Each structure stands twice: as C-alpha cells, then as structure tokens.
C-alpha cells in the first residue's frame, strides 16, 4: 500500500531540513520539539527509511540522509501543489477566480448586464467569464444541456421545461416600435386594433402576444426577423412596425420610438434560470446572489 502523507508532516520535515534543527522547526511550527520529533518519526515509518542522520552529541546540527536529500525536493513539490490547489479553491469559493458560463436574452445583455458585470468583476479580476446571448428558448436549452451555469431569460407560455428553476427579477411591458415618421408615433399608447393597417414584422418576442386578443395580428405578419440588428435596420428603413418588450428597445435610437401597448397590456417576467436540484458553482452562485440584490435597482 502506498504511504499517505500528511501535509503538516511534510512541512515539519522541510523546516527541520532547511533550519538544520528540530528546535528551530518547532519554533516555526509553534509546536513543541517532541511533537516535531514524533511527526518526523511517523513520516519515516511511512517512508520506510530515515530522512535525518542520527544526531551526534557533538553537534546540534541536523543533517539529511542520502534518502532524505532525495526526498526533500519531492516533499517541497507536494507542499507547493497542495498549497496551489488550496489557494485556487479558496479563491473560487470567494469568487476571486474560476469560470462563470452565462447566457442571457439580448435585451438584458445589452441594457442591464454591462453595468452589472462591471460591478461584479471589479473585485474578481481573475474570474473568467464565457457569455452567450440568445432568445429565451435557446438560453433554456443551454441550461438543460449544462452548456452554461446560469441563465437570464423569461419562461415561454406553456413551456415544458419542468426541470428549470425560475427566479423572477425584472419585468417590462410590451410596446409598439415604429419609425418616428409613422402616424402611430403621435400616440402615447396604442390598442392592438390600431395596428391593423400596418405591416407587422414579427420577431422572437412576438410569442408574448399569442395567448392574447392581439394574436390575430401575428397571423397577418408579412415578415419574421429573428436577429435584432436586422430588425432594427428594417424598422429604420420604414418597412413596417413591430412589438418589443421595453428592455429590447434601443433606447438611444433617434429614428425609432416606443409606444406602450395598453390593450392588451402584456408584461414580460425576466429572471434567473437554472437547473432544479443542481448546485451552482461558487462563481455562478455569487453572481446569482449579486443580481438578485442589484437587479431591482436596475429597473
């Protein structure tokens, strides 16, 4: 059977060797000299060989045996490896290092996450983050396949993701987005029937209208555009109008406007998604706790 070394014994051995005496090693270890002697004897029993020469009454110096000289660099290597792993785990526990895999819907990714992540990593310069943005269904799939640790998304109506734990944080309302020169832009709010004469461009968030009285609008949609950049370009060109959650609207865009849809009044819930009955990594748990604390302030 292979010997099982105790790190404390290895440290005692190295200190005795480097300091040339049990007395000095005992002082460094804040132990008694007999305790250090017992520790070294136990180590020698495990190794099956002496690591120190028998001390002469004529000298207070402690010398290594040939076996001890060979073992000394190995002991230092074991201690260094142990300390490196211990430090890594401590840093990961305290969210100072590690790897966070995060996925989010684009609206939160663009509107809220830059500020949140900037604050979160300020005290964690060694934390590596892999970030993916996609629609809610894609985020949920990444969670289920364990491709990411944590996600930020909404749960689709009638979804079948029973293995997903959802913690709501933010909510935003659905509105109509159109060109500033569109006649609809003069309204402070809109009813879904006001949109009948408009060319509707549906998108990934249009499903939020499916179970409402505005569902007939989707049947008459001439365009479907999944990419947000392409959708915005089409709207800026005046090709049509669309519906979007407020967070998804490009707030600094001077060409487009957002008009709240009051009938039906649709609210989207967004929050943290993770696998049920599965513990998060220290970094993911720290980030979840952080956005739960900070999220309400970002509304």
What's this entry about, in short?
The chain has 299 residues and is an alpha/beta fold. It has helices at residues 7-19, 22-29, 33-47, 66-93, 106-111, 113-121, 136-144, 215-219, 228-236, 282-294, and strands spanning 97-104, 126-133, 150-153, 164-179, 190-191, 201-202, 223-224, 242-245, 256-263, 267-275. It comes from Pseudoalteromonas porphyrae.
The CATH topology label of the largest domain is D-Maltodextrin-Binding Protein, domain 2
- Gross morphology is rod-shaped
Number of continuous helical runs? 10
Oligomer: single chain
Structural class: alpha/beta
- CATH homologous superfamily assignment of the largest domain: Periplasmic binding protein-like II
Protein name: LysR family transcriptional regulator
GO molecular function: DNA binding; DNA-binding transcription factor activity
InterPro entries: HTH-type_LysR_regulators, LysR_HTH_N, LysR_subst-bd, WH-like_DNA-bd_sf, WH_DNA-bd_sf
Keywords: DNA-binding, Transcription, Transcription regulation
Structure explained in plain terms:
The chain is α/β, with parallel strands linked by helices. The protein has 3 domains: 7-93, Arc Repressor Mutant, subunit A; 98-170 and 269-298, D-Maltodextrin-Binding Protein, domain 2, CATH 3.40.190; 172-267, Periplasmic binding protein-like II (D-Maltodextrin-Binding Protein, domain 2). Helices cover 38% and strands 21% of the residues. The protein contains 10 helices and 10 strands. The strands form 2 sheets. Strands 1, 2, 3, 4, 5, 8, 9 and 10 form an 8-stranded mixed beta sheet that branches. A two-stranded parallel ribbon has the order 6-7. Helix 8 (215-219) links the parallel strand 6 (201-202) and strand 7 (223-224).
